[in-house]
Amino acid sequence: MRLIPRGGLGQIGKNMMLLECGDDIVVIDSGLMFPSEEMLGVDIIIPDMSYLLKNRDRVRGLVITHGHEDHIGAVPHLLQSLNVPVYATKLSARLISMGLKQKGVKVKAQINEVPPGDVVKLGCMSVEFFPVCHSIPDAAGLVIQTPLGTIVHTGDFKLDHNPIIGEPTDLHRLALIGTQQVLLLLSDSTYAELPGYTPSEQTVTESLDRIIVGAQGRVIIATFSSLVARIQQAMDIAAKYKRHVFVTGRSMEGMVKVASETGYLKIPASTLSKYEQVHNLPPDRVVILTTGTQGEPTSALVRMGNGEHSQVRIMPGDTVVMSATPIPGNEALVSKTINKLFRLGADVVYGHQSRVHVHGHGSEEELKTILNLVRPKYFVPVHGEYRHLAKHAKLAEDMGVAGENVFILDNGDVLEIGVNGAKVVGKVPAGDIMANGLITAELDGGMLRDRRLLSRDGVVVVAIVLSRETGKPVGEPQITGRGFVGAGDCNELWSGGQRAVASAIAYSQGAGKGRSAVEASAREALARYFYEKTHRRPVILPIVTEV
Amino acid sequence: MRLIPRGGLGQIGKNMMLLECGDDIVVIDSGLMFPSEEMLGVDIIIPDMSYLLKNRDRVRGLVITHGHEDHIGAVPHLLQSLNVPVYATKLSARLISMGLKQKGVKVKAQINEVPPGDVVKLGCMSVEFFPVCHSIPDAAGLVIQTPLGTIVHTGDFKLDHNPIIGEPTDLHRLALIGTQQVLLLLSDSTYAELPGYTPSEQTVTESLDRIIVGAQGRVIIATFSSLVARIQQAMDIAAKYKRHVFVTGRSMEGMVKVASETGYLKIPASTLSKYEQVHNLPPDRVVILTTGTQGEPTSALVRMGNGEHSQVRIMPGDTVVMSATPIPGNEALVSKTINKLFRLGADVVYGHQSRVHVHGHGSEEELKTILNLVRPKYFVPVHGEYRHLAKHAKLAEDMGVAGENVFILDNGDVLEIGVNGAKVVGKVPAGDIMANGLITAELDGGMLRDRRLLSRDGVVVVAIVLSRETGKPVGEPQITGRGFVGAGDCNELWSGGQRAVASAIAYSQGAGKGRSAVEASAREALARYFYEKTHRRPVILPIVTEV
After folding, report:
1. How far is CA A8 from the centre of its chain?
2. Nearest-CA distance B42 → chain A (Å)
3. Is B188 a catalytic residue?
4. For a disulfide at A415, which of A3, B57, B213, B536, Cβ 3.0-4.6 Å?
5. What residue spans define the domains of chain B?
6. Do B485 and A332 touch (CB under 8 A)?
């Protein structure tokens, strides 16, 4: 049996995982990643699927743990190349269908809704979905029976014993499985470095209640659109205090629609209102639910902070609740948004101290609970950066898993488990595939390096015309540029550059060389001239036309 | 009397502050800022000094609170334009002199060392330096006597009652001043949103001791080079356990030299060692002190993580201590560094839980202590983002300062304080001046926008030659580009682009237009063609030569 994790951007095993057994392959999740700051101009990253496509005849199905974009966002890309049956719980299935529609995917997808507890047979493996608690409803863990033994995959999870929506993580099922020798546990490592327990979502209820009851004006609550439990709480508390709720932000509006249609969100009677309705109410009768907790430039909250939201104008007396923590890398954008809201006179409630958010993943003691219940022979920490996996691996050893049976895998590593043991036997392609407009290709280091250079000191172009007959320049070299210097400094630099190029060409022509020599000497002359004048190194593009 | 704060990058009043009284101006600090992520290609930001230069005859002196770069980094720029006398405590004075030398500043600077407690007369104002505790030795707060009353400026401070180096913040002096009606308090707001007290630097001693005594191998401690107290602790504990200390990283080596020469750092006998010496010792006899806690790409720790440090190779058994927290915006780089160190087999100690760092600024209760001791009539929170100032302002009101006497100023705001009250009366230039190579200019939004565009989808250049006689194109349009598509996709796109441009020019020529029409139609044709083919929008630069 072989296990191949596929993450991306350092989140190992996060977005896709392959299980091979005999002639059968089961795919777990197919998610996308958002590019990090240095991946200039990249829209999204999807997992390299070449290994799957090469083995297309063996793929029995795609099993989905939950409906977050980093677990379902690449399903459209996968189905376009390989229309394999998909198995998911109800909400995840709906979100996948929505995604296929939004991306205009033409294939007739086979999406199967699987109720928690059900078992799906996929070749020689069978996959049972069990409920886990996470920051989106209807999340599942997997119990996979294979000829070699039982595998438990937690998916993204935490142990909230009384969640706002749905079932708590099914500890009874895990306890029962744990009494029968489990071969392998794959467990979520995202918060392996946090000690203790992640607090219950119920603790947020208390904070939101206190804030809403105490607010003299409007309360604007921003959170993740997929965090339906938070939306439910906000609506319930608003209803309790007879406030009307206006929902704004495209993804939030979409999720409120899907989650209420599917019955996960129960909107209290006469609470949800249109803007025209809340606009005429006193401020202390209004709650606004919105997105933008990550400082995303086009989100509703950021537009409010910029005074650019078409309906909501922030005013003194407003209370804005940032009911989320910044995802690593977004801190600066979030901070900027908070400052802008304060400047407009709002009181902003944010940060750990305010207790208006809890994580969606389990902390150290929860990971230990799972390890203790499942008692696996082999353990592979998944979903996390290397340091999280290392911490989780150490936890597993502390909990009694033999050190040689704990594997920290890298994306693409092939772990082979047999009757006599397990080891990493090779690697399959697992590069980051970038989607940038219509172009989908492996990340091109050279292209990204060029973009980085362009972004530092801009670009200068010099056009040179050569006579085909004499090999000599015709007319003056023409120079233009972008992003190198401010408008005021151009003219002098351009004319100096023209002179530098002209004399460099004259010299290289004298040496009787051709077109590429002209380009090289123009580039060199300009680079030297500009560095001398500015101590900066723009990208220099010479372009020679022969007439 | 007029007060003009000058910060930059949202840190209001952080880097420079002007006090005007009658005909006299006193400048407090002259610091630089590091650019945020979106300021592509900018090296450093310095405060706009045009208002100072315009009033150069009235400037009596530059008073420095402490030696961090965000308070002294722009001194070389200021002195080059205005060679005003500088007043600073000993370590700050030495660091300023070093900075002038490193930048090759030719002016003969008048740098005066002022012992804490001393008073300097500057026009109608007199400035007394009093010791405050901060994350660099020899930090000072200021008591400024003016004809209108007393001003207290805390500088950057915290209330560590038993600091490792130097005096605690002088509460007696502040208590005494507080009994005489203080006109105005300016106080550090950096950590106004943290409740309670910032723990003493002594708490770090316990953690470092525990880590070093427990480590089987080498202990590599990374911290800020200016955090001399941390360096002192690391050396003392190393000496206690008979470990030798090797110092690496240019800024750390420099600071160890300056701080030990000036007597702030007391290096225990036979502790400091060269690499050749520690290289031959057993790993449990070695401590390495280094920089790189912010994930700076060229720092010693990051080079170790990349396996590129010329001397130190990370090996299993090493313990790396990140004795600092990431400065906002650096989180992703720091995280990447930690992952790399784990991959190389090191155990990495980091984060709040590990108690290996304390902040250099006071938390809420400390700010309240100062407000309570000083009891000012007017209060201006300084040093912080808008949200920190807003929190600090609210604290001041809670502590009894009249709401109408609390001013949240923006950079460049002019607060005029008279016998009958205070109000903001205007604004002076306070833009961010960017230093990028030799060019020092106000941040040019257009240029930064161009760099942003270039960084997203790269650049495509098209060179067109026109006959001066006929106005018709001569030869083929030539196309090249950078950062737009990977090398493999170029050829087809370039030749398609050539055809698109050629036919567009033919058409616009038919309409009998000139050179700029040719450029416009080439740009438009290429933009349309590339968008159709790739859904991307590179910057397009047409360049026409007439022959």
Report:
1. 10
2. 7
3. yes
4. A3
5. 2-196+359-442, 204-354, 445-546
6. no
